[in-house]
Amino acid sequence: MTNHIPALDLAAVAPRPPAPQAELASGSRAAAVKLVDVAKSFHTRCVLRQVDLSIEPQEFVALVGRSGCGKSTLLRLIAGLIPPTSGRVYIDGQPLAGINPRARMMFQDARLLPWVRVADNVALAARDQPAVAVEQALQMVQLADRGQDWPLTLSGGQRQRVALARALIGRPPLLLLDEPLGALDALTRIEMQLLIDRLWQQHPCTAVLVTHDIEEAVLLANRILIVEDGTISKEFAVDLPRPRARLQPAFQQLVAHVLTHVLRTSVTASETPGPPMDRDIARGSR
Questions:
Q1: Which of 21, 41, 125, 156 is most buried by its number of CB atoms within 10 A?
Q2: Is residue 117 part of a domain?
């Protein structure tokens, strides 16, 4: 039997900072993130090198790049799950040492405990929250009537909604999303993208998303960073009004522009990604 590990409640497993716990319970101010000359190696393999990055409070940043370029490693450094080989990570101006207590993380796998009911899975991240907070979190993701169900009775999209509720309970200052929609079918993925966008607009926090789906990055992010050969090679500002429409020319032009840089093809920013293969890659197909 495969062991299922819940999405990490980083705030719960880390030592508490000196700030009052009530601040996190009511939704503290969004976190500022800064990386200074950060490098990360695993044995002799250098995954990240000389990364300098600043993320402002309430900014939504997407990390895009080919598989193995270091996107998820960068996210785990911000979460404090792994230490940098050199350089420093700062959260709200303070050097990060160990697990980031101001972050919650959501993974591609919902990581729900199958022997625990839905509401109790959400409550794993709500140790300092009243019971009503679990109900409110499930209501946010439109699963208010499924709290007493077992995870195995839910669809894949519903399980990811539970994982999102668990990540958002208490309104964390920093939300880290590691390809959370990558395993969903196309229609469910679109529904979840719209849900994340709506919830982020209602309760803004600092958010960092790792994705292969360029349309998803343009839909959700204020800024898109291209990770290439272990460093940030390019960034794109997303100055489109929300809610964003995928079929608008400006949206598709930006998708094509980002795709051009990632794939190093002849597609220009003034063209929409016409060939079917380009369209599939833009949507994150593998």
A1: 125
A2: yes
Q: Tokens 């393999």 identify what position?
A: 45
Residues paired with 54 in a beta bridge: 34
Residue ranges making up the domain that contains 173: 10-282
Q: What is the mean pLDDT of residues 185-200?
A: 93
End-to-end CA distance of the chain: 28
Q: Give the CATH number, domain containing residue 28.
A: 3.40.50.300
Mean pLDDT of 260-278: 52
Which strands sit side by side in the sheet containing 206-210, from one edge to the other?
103-106, 174-178, 206-210, 60-64, 223-228, 231-237
CA angle 54, 57, 63 (to 5 degrees): 50
78 part of a folded domain? yes
Q: Under the phi-then-psi rule, with left for phi > 0, alpha for psi from -120 to 50, and beta for the rest, what region is 229?
A: left
pLDDT in tens, 246-266: 999 999 999 999 999 998 733
Count of structural domains, the chain: 1
In angstroms, the CA 109 to CA 216 distance is 18
Say if residue 11's pLDDT is above 80.
no
Tally of residues, the chain:
286
Residue 5 lies in a domain: no
CA torsion through residues 114, 120, 122, 127, sign: negative
Q: What is the pLDDT of residue 253?
A: 96
Backbone angles phi, psi at 228, to 5 degrees: -145, 130
pLDDT digits (tens, 9 = 90+) for 75-94: 999 999 999 999 999 999 99
**Closest listed residue to residue 23, CA positions, set 102, 87, 96:** 102
